[in-house]
Found in Mitochondrial Proteome (Fusarium acutatum), 958 residues
Amino acid sequence: MAKTNEDLLRRPLYLYDLPAEVLDTMVLKSDTDAEAEAIATAESTKTPSESASSSDTNLVGTQACSLCGLTFTTVIDQRGHLKSDFHHYNLKQKLRGQKPVSETEFEKLVGNLDESLSGSDSDESEEEEEDGRQDSTLTALLKKQARLADKANDSTADDEDETAGKPGRGKPPLVWFSSPLLPEKTYFGMYRAILTGEEQRNQDLVEVLKKKQVEPISMPKIPKEGALPEVAYKGPHIFLCMIGGGHFAAMVVSLAPRPNKNGTTMNREATVLAHKTFHRYTTRRKQGGSQSANDNAKGAAHSAGSSLRRYNEQALVEDVRTLLQDWKALIDTSELLFIRATGVTNRRTLFGPYEGQVLKHNDTRLRGFPFSTRRATQNELMRSFIELTRLKVREIEPVQEQKKDSGSATPTKTSAKPSKPKLTEEEETALLHTSQLQAFVRRSKVPALLSYLKNNNISADFEFQPVEQNHHAPRPLHLAAAQNAAPLVLGLLVRGGADPTIKNNDGKTPFELAGERSTRDAFRVARSELGESKWSWDDAKVPPAMTKAEADKRDEREKKEASDKEAERRRAEEERLQVEGPKVSEGRKQKGNALAAGLKKTPQERREAEERGLTPEMRMRWNERYHVVDKLGQGGYSTIWLARDRELNKYVAVKVGTADQVSKESDILLKLAGNPTKEFSGNLITPVLDQFTVNGPNGTHSCIVTAPARCSMAESVKTSRYISFQPGVARALSVQLIMATAYVHRAGFIHGGNVLLQLPGSELDHLSIQQVYEKYYKPDPHPAARTDGQPVTSPSVPTNVYTPNWLGKPSDEVLLPEARLWLADFGTTFNPSQETRLLSYTHLQNRPPEAVFDSTKPLTFSSDIWSLGLMVWECMGSGPFMSGFLWDEDEVIADQVDALGPLPHEWWEKWETRTDVFTEDGQPKGVMEAWPLQKRFDLTIQRGKKTERLDDEESRAF
């Protein structure tokens, strides 16, 4: 008998054709045992978490990332890391309350993305850079993990619940039965989703299962078209469908088993009545998200790839709806409809509304797949059908024994994470002084540094805190020497009284840290001015004294010698040219046309060759007034250049629009600047200094000349160590932001643009172009090249392309006197009394909800107020109000509901996918952690402050 049972259970048990001995002995398990099943299922589906390998050492410093546990040799390396996918991924881990990963672990995670989210198995890659963002790898990784987390949740089977006939919330996806045919602690199981609504309400599920048994029938031959004739089959069947990433797969499967030649039923696979798959290229490789979602978030991209994806999206919709119409008879008679369609676009493809709609979102037969599924293919549908219809046999430990085992087991001591010691008032003050002094030193602000030391009664030998993180440059003089700030070294020694004999932890004096001769000369000049008795200069390793006049005289002599040497070289070269002619290397003669290689171009010809293909903004370097210095930034409709105004002898920013673009930005700016109120708020609008047009190979470009800005407020926050402004700075910027927005509203305009930090002219105008390159970065041209290797000959293509320079600073380094902003980018600004606009151009994370749900209503000033509130939050806190890792409107709306509660009733009803993540009262489903308003305030506003937190009055205002 035991052998018979073993043979019986060894073969697959098809749910609709179970042996009589199995049906007769099955008994439904109790709810208490079902609880144990839920625990067992959860344990079995758990994925082992990788332990973070990063060090516990808390790295904080000007060139370190405490989150990722990395240090950097230069600020450029640090800024590059802060913009990397690795750093952004760890930020997301921190927001989710999880441990950061090491760089090696992150590379393994990215390496597992061996196929694109669009599902294409081809090695072809569409890598057009339609926008400046390169977040495709991070987006793909986070979306993949989000899907896996959703599908691992036991309540996944309930995601598609409707009020009639669906499993109740909180019930496990499997129903378990005991049987004497099974060994001890082993049970039969089946998915609840395979039962209809009426069957689930029946208390006697064993009797329901007996009624579901189907007699084997012989199936007619399936025609080549892939579907049976409409009258060929009238037995029980189900419909399965998956869509996502440009892939669509559908199948209608008979529930009746097939007999073999001996009259017994075969080992069950499936009898497919109809099947069809489609694939269209709708998603950029490894980017994730459809083209329509990308257009809604960032605006329509103009490229061959984006146009192809838009066409394919529409074609896929038509193909799917045509197929559903052809299968309408089979779908209407199906017992159940198993559908996987994530995202608004995919749901609208299936559920419309559209004329001739086949599937209805309120159909009581609808089910989700109660287990993890992969890409939409015919094989995946077949695997899912077998998983749904096969009777499970599994060992489950009862609840009582679990509790007993857990009670008797020796409790393991979990190493408690050491709490961060609370800083004393003196320590917080020392950290504040350290931050301010280091900022002054890095910017070579001699008067400001000395004034700060005097006003706060601080010694010039103040030791930076924490000591272990400033071991290389522990004091201002060490840092000034390491930064090669010669004027600052001289000021600290002569006027500040700094001690040059103090050594750092490496045993080096400040002089030994100086890397340039001018900095070392500053020590020698200070020795001359202070005298030999002031310090033990030999112990400080400072060479013999030198007066400033001697140093200047030596520098002039060396410059003259270098100039004379260059003049002599030029004279000798001119004499050689008169006798020998231009010199042509043998290597160059062997390449291309020898005659052309030997020709020497005149200066005019060289200028014309250099001008060929240059963009209009680069041609401006030959303009009589503006000399282009470097590139500052670019967007979808303009590029901004730093230029030197020869007439006013100062630096300006020139914003060059795309060719033949009609923009009202200059008119709006001039109107705002000419407002007769002359109030302070008017000074917070980008000032227009000049405007003109330039004719280029691509057409006519409009140019607006403004004062240069430091950087955008968002960029300043992103590059900060602590990702926040100091409290006083944040308050000042918030007030200015509110005043400027109110000023624009009083003028009748809705802004919706950018916010820039002002750059004082005194910080830049006194520098020569070469000094600007030395202080920031010299332009790094990259030759424009074709992918096919052919030479670039088109006059509309520039010879070189340039990466933007950055004049900004991290938010935690912005001082209160520098806390001035401008509203900028008025290209999308409009007057609602004169123009009706339905589409919001605001970034997806800052887009107001009315722009989503009331898309037929014009935008109003309230939309601007929503964006204003989010920007004030980001200014005051250590992070944005909305998560920075949201990919479509549904996720943004979900984050809004998570923070502020359910939407107004009319919007809540319009949001079709709300039941995927929320209950009807706005509570998150499953394992999703709630992040209400108070929690966000505590984490991003209060805890983000290093020295001062908001008081009760300010907290209530937020």
User: Anything to note?
Assistant: The CA atoms of residues 640 and 655 lie 4 Å apart.
